[in-house]
């Protein structure tokens, strides 16, 4: 039997979808901008300690930056409606020296918090994490063993990610805490798909609250970024392209028969970009340098419609720049959408 809370959420979701279907574009645009977001993607940092072949973190134009506390306060001051913040877009959040100060500040205001991590420095952060009031964390362990893990998580350590996860769960149990909930996940490239039972057994054996098998994203057109003038040294860019190409030679990434790796049907209604209004567009997304962008897929900031260094979040959200971005999405002309494979 559904709980009253679950029924209420289901009813609100149906009402929202009905409203979105019936409202003309002009009114839908105005409606989105009139309601400050309940959920926020807030990037902690672009810094990362690994060199995963398909990750754009290493060649984004923004270089290494860390979220300023003033930007978080700007948002908290404006958005009394906020229910949840994810401190993760690019980079490794645990490298931000004030991450748990941010989490604690949100916890004081009753806002749920989440981030994903590669787990490489997790062990030395366990006490801070458990003391912070963090709601949930997702830990990437991308392989059934060290050999498969090292194919993608360059410079990482399977043993360190696994042992750190176990220590976090053990310490949480010792303190008799229910939070943060812990998810462990694996990106299912073809070599992981061929060992799916081993992957699932390994993940379940860690004793986390949930496991997830994730579909990879293969849209990383480094040559296009090069043509667009990405502010990255030529040697580094070429090294990144070479690393990606070498990795793709090892995976069966264009095989339509693959369960996880097969390309998505671009016309599928489950793709967010084919919804009347993309769920990510209803969330706020802020890069660590203060730029407010259309969604979490825009790691380069090409859809920037405001900057927290110049305006308040509420002014940006309700402004003309945001109106233009929403119009482009509704007209199916927002370029970032063509690179997106999010669905639901």
Which terms summarize this structure?
nine-stranded mixed sheet; alpha/beta; globular; 344 residues
Shape: globular
Overall radius of gyration: 20 Å
The share of residues in extended strands comes to: 5-15%
Structural class: alpha/beta
Count of runs of 4 or more consecutive helical residues: 14
The largest pleated sheet is described as: 9 strands, mixed
**What is the N-to-C order of secondary-structure elements (H for helix, E for strand)?**
HHEHEHEHEHHEHHEHHHEEEHH
State the separation between the terminal residues, measured CA to CA.
24 Å
The low-confidence parts are none
Number of strands: 9
Relative helix content: 25-40%
Strand order of the largest sheet: 6-5-4-3-2-1-7-8-9
Summed over residues and divided by their number, the pLDDT gives a mean of 89
Written account of the structure:
The protein has helices spanning 4-22, 25-34, 69-78, 99-108, 126-132, 146-152, 158-174, 190-193, 196-205, 222-227, 234-248, 279-282, 313-317, 320-330, and strands at residues 39-42, 84-86, 112-117, 136-140, 181-187, 210-214, 284-286, 291-293, 306-307. With 344 residues, it is α/β, with parallel strands linked by helices. A 9-stranded mixed sheet has the order 6-5-4-3-2-1-7-8-9. Helix 2 (25-34) crosses helix 14. It is globular, with a radius of gyration of 20 Å. The two termini are 24 Å apart.
Question: Would you spell out the secondary-structure blueprint of this structure?
Answer:
Blueprint: H1 4-22, H2 25-34, E1 39-42, H3 69-78, E2 84-86, H4 99-108, E3 112-117, H5 126-132, E4 136-140, H6 146-152, H7 158-174, E5 181-187, H8 190-193, H9 196-205, E6 210-214, H10 222-227, H11 234-248, H12 279-282, E7 284-286, E8 291-293, E9 306-307, H13 313-317, H14 320-330
Parallel strand pairs: 1-2, 1-7, 2-3, 3-4, 4-5, 5-6
Antiparallel strand pairs: 7-8, 8-9
Helix pairs in contact: 2-14, 4-5
